[in-house]
Amino acid sequence: MNKSMEWETVIGLEIHAQLATKSKIFSGASTIYGAKPNTQACAVDLGLPGVLPVINEQAILMAIKFGLAIGAEIPERSVFARKNYFYPDLPKGYQISQFELPIVSNGFIEIVIENKKKKLIKITRAHLEEDAGKSNHDQFNGCTGIDFNRAGNPLLEIVSEPDMNDAKEAISYLKKIHSLVRYLEICDGNMQEGSFRCDANVSVKPTQQKELGTRAEIKNLNSFKFIEAAINHEVERQINLIESGEIVTQETRLYDAKKNETRSMRSKEEANDYRYFPDPDLLPVLITEETKKIVRELIPELPDAKRMRYQNELGLSEYDSDNLTANPDIANYFETTIKVANGNAKMCANWIMGDLLASLNKENMNIKNSPVTAKMLGDMINLIKDKTISGKIAKIVFEAMWNKEGVAISIIESKDLKQVTDLNEIENLIDGIIAENTLQVKQYKNCPADKKQKFISFFIGQIMKKSKGKANPIQVSELLKERLNS
Amino acid sequence: MPKQYFDENLDNNVAEVIENGLKELEKLGAKCVDVELPHTELSIPAYYVVAPAECSSNLSRYDGVRFGHRCKEPKDLSDLYCRSRQEGFGKEVKRRIMTGTYVLSAGYYDAYYIKAQKIRQIISNDFQNVFKNVDIIAGPTTTGVAFKLNEKLNDPISMYLSDLYTVSVNLAGLPAISVPSGFINKLPVGMQLIGNYFQESLLMNVAHQYQKVTDWHQKIPQAYE
Prior knowledge:
The complex is a heterodimer. Chain A is α+β, with helices and mostly antiparallel strands. Chain A contains 15 helices and 15 strands. Chain A has three domains: 285 residues, no CATH class; 114 residues, no CATH class; 63 residues, Arc Repressor Mutant, subunit A. Helices cover 40% and strands 20% of the residues of chain A. In chain A, the strands form four sheets. Chain A has an eight-stranded mixed beta sheet. The mean pLDDT of chain A is 91. Chain B is built from eight helices and three strands; from the N terminus they run αααααβααββα. Chain B has a three-stranded antiparallel beta sheet with strand order 1-3-2. In chain B, β2 and β3 form a beta hairpin. The longest helix of chain B has 23 residues. The model of chain B has no long low-confidence stretch (mean pLDDT 94). At the A-B interface, loops of A face α2 of B.
């Protein structure tokens, strides 16, 4: 192979999004995360002989919602199929999934790539399936323990076309889907808990070549950071292989985050013949136009539309709009705040993206559980706007609200933080400072014009200090200049 | 009465018993007519593709991990699976698992499983055509009387053929009932009544009327007295 050859990367992604239903996809057991092992697995989830699955209607409706949101086809008839393979955490010896007639096909989503260019990523299909249990190889000294709590959790597997050409595009696509499923309220998107996971199919080919190269599938990717690292590593591995005259074999590889490498899990020859066939225990699902219409009405304003509205109607920057809309909880918080604050979008955005998110991140908290509610923040912003407090004092108020000391107005009262706007009071403050700093006043009067600002800042600083930050800085500045120049 | 249920596969003595049973129904006011289920013969090969396919998958859960037989001291996971299933399943079950796995395998699925499902639809259509004109289909339940235990173990095809009249009903998904109608060489003979979808009540009523005027269901085969 020619070493100077240009390589093109081709990536397709399979995302597993756990649907936010209360009960499992084919049984009534709870799906809540973190319960004691095997306390949330009923006879159906354990695959005991004689049990029969019953489809969870919510899972169907959530899948339809996703399909409609990506402009996909929702066929009238959708069929569940069995994927047969043996594994200890697969209790029935088969997984109920979909094969030939998935519930969603031929959708697309737009992502933003380098240089703010837009790119359409096609979504081949999205199908419903049940999750397997979880094997635990570490805790039982030479034995494997199995927790079936996860068995039967509803998953939506979202399969993209190989439309992405580098790790950044893959991440951009992933984040877009991640944001979308949360907006649709069909998945909580929690990657640590495994509610949103991803397998990547990666191949490389010379840029001129039309046919795709042999691909490797990387499994076990559960954070954006790892996915990017794993793809980059895999691309490098494949290019090195080909450039040193070897070939890429079709195989499944596991990503090891600690070593930042992928290693072979099984080759194509070892791959299972899954013997898919329609599950005789479940009737085909029939979806009417009426159902689609009802579900369509449940779709909220989606991130792209919201982002455009924030820019066009609220006058926010692209950066602010992107940050506020990526997470629906933040967008909801923002929208409540501007409602309370009667607009002032830019100020609200700054407070949320600044002090609020910084505090939340520091404590690793979700905005939904913020001690400072959107109403409290909006009220505080109103108090800045009507000059009850200055922006600087507001930082003190915010911190007090964060520490659950009350709402803005009561904190201002109890801490005596009200801004001084009374002209006489400000004049008195100025008088005092001028009297205390006669030397500086003299220097100010004698120095050249371009040095004067330094003294102004000094005097304002002194006055603000004396007023404990409560004096209105604009008024102080105006009155001070008048006095010094008179 | 489907013509295809009174063909050369049917034991003559059984035919006679069933014809007597039908006469009882006529006495009760039933009108008997001949009907056609032209694809009956296809039901055995179709059934013995579909049923083993489902069975191979249904029985996967008996892998020695959670319940059922587990082999002693497995070397590894593969050994646990192989020996538990080898030791735990009988010959006929293994035969069906093997057949079922084969017909679902990549490359054979279309030729066997899909074709069998198409035949299933044809058989179901046959029944629907008949039910346009009749309420109940009556005929023999099996081709002959019970064979001896293990007699046909090494001739599974002949054993499967004795299911000829029942498997087509299963493939079509119809309700059916077998009512005791006489004895041949001290062995009981059943008459099968088949109803249309959701006609279980009609089926039960006909069976009940028949049993009100006969007492075969109260006679116990001699060996069991």
